[in-house]
Amino acid sequence: TDFIFNYSKSSYWNQFVADSTDAPAVLCSDDDLVCCGDYLLVYNHDFPWQGSNSLLIEDSVFIINGKIYAVNIYSETDMTPWFRSMNMKDLSELQFINFESAPEEDYIPYLEKLATIKPNAGFYLSDTDAISKYPQLYSVYNPRYLINFEFSNSNRHLLEELSDLELLWMNIIQTGHVEPLPALPKLKQLFIALSAEEPLPDDFLVHNKQIEKLIVIGNNNSVFDLNCIRYLKRLNTFAAIDIDSLINLQLINNHQHLMYLQLCSCPHIEQVNLAHLRWISIPSEVTQEQFENFLNMHAHLEVVELKNRNICDLQHLAELNRLKGLVIADTVTDYAS
C-alpha cells in the first residue's frame, strides 16, 4: 500500500507515505484501527508484519504474510470464484469483509456460508447502505468489528444482538433526540461521527461504562460536552477531531487513566493535568509558552505529535526522558533541538 495511518491515534489522521527506499510506517498500540490504503486492520503487538513485502492485495483480498485479513466486495469485481473455493483457504486471521458496494443477491448464500467458517468477521461498510437490504447478515454473523454503521433510534436494535462487538464506528444520522447506545458488553473502542444538527445527549454512553477508547469526530461546527464521558471509568484513549467547541474541558481531569489524548481544537490546554498521560497530540492553537508548561506538567510523555506553527523551539522535548516517538506534521524549523 502507498500510505498508512492510525485512525485511533494519528494526529489529524496524518497519512504516512512510502518513498523510493522505505515503506510507510506508523506508531500503533494494541487494538488500534489502522488504515492501509483501501483496507482496514486492527493492530496487536503480535502482528506478523515483516517489512513492505509482507503485504499484498490480490484479487480484492488483503493478505499479510500469506494470511487473509480482509475480503473486498465490489460491484465491478466478480468474487464468486473466490467464494466457491473459500473452504480451501486459511481464514483464521480474517478481520473484515469490506462492502464497497451492495452485494448482488447471488453473494448472500456465499456470505452466509462464510459466517459458518468465520462468524466473528467484522463488517466494513464503505458503502454505508451496502447491506441494508440484507439485515439477516446481522443475525448469521456476530462481528467483532463494525465500521460505518449509521445509527438512528429506528435501527439501534440491530446492535443489540451483537454481543461480541469490540469496536464500533457509528455515524449519527438521527435528527432530534438520540436514544442511548444499547448495552454492548464487549465494546472497548467507539468512534462517533456526530450529526451536525444535534449535540450528543449526556446519557448516550450510560450503558457502556467499560469503553476504553473513544474517538469523537465533528461535522460542521460540532460541539462536544465532556460531561458525556463521565460514565467511562476505564477510559485510556480520548480524541476529539474537528470539534469546534469542547464544553467542560476541565472534566477531562476526572479520567486519570487516560494515556492518549488528542484535542484538535483546544486553546486552553493548560486546564489539562493527567498524571499517567503517555501520548499527546498538541492542538494547533497552543502557544510556545503553553507547550512548554504542558511538557513540564507531563514529564512522563513517550510520544508527542505536533501540527502547530506557533511552536518553533523544541528544546524542551529533550527534557522528556521517556520520549520514544516524535511526529511533526509541519515544517521543521528547529533542527538543532
Could you characterize what this model shows?
The protein has 337 residues and is mainly β. Helix content is 10%, strand content 26%. The protein contains 5 helices and 20 strands. A 14-stranded mixed beta sheet has the order 5-6-7-8-9-10-11-12-13-15-17-18-19-20, with no helix packed on it. It has a 4-stranded antiparallel beta sheet with strand order 2-1-3-4, with no helix packed on it. Strand 6 (61-64) and strand 7 (67-73) form a beta hairpin. The model has no long low-confidence stretch (mean pLDDT 87).
In short:
The protein is mainly β and 337 residues long. 10% of the residues lie in helices and 26% in strands. The two termini are 33 Å apart.
Outline the secondary-structure elements:
Layout lengths: L2 E4 L9 E2 L15 E4 L2 E4 L12 E4 L2 E4 L2 E7 L6 H5 L11 E4 L7 H11 L4 E3 L12 H4 L4 E7 L5 H4 L6 E6 L16 E5 L19 E5 L5 E3 L11 E5 L3 E3 L12 E4 L15 E4 L5 H10 L5 E4 L18 E4 L9
Parallel strand pairs: 7-8, 8-9, 9-10, 10-11, 11-12, 12-13, 13-15, 14-16, 15-17, 17-18, 18-19, 19-20
Antiparallel strand pairs: 1-2, 1-3, 3-4, 5-6, 6-7
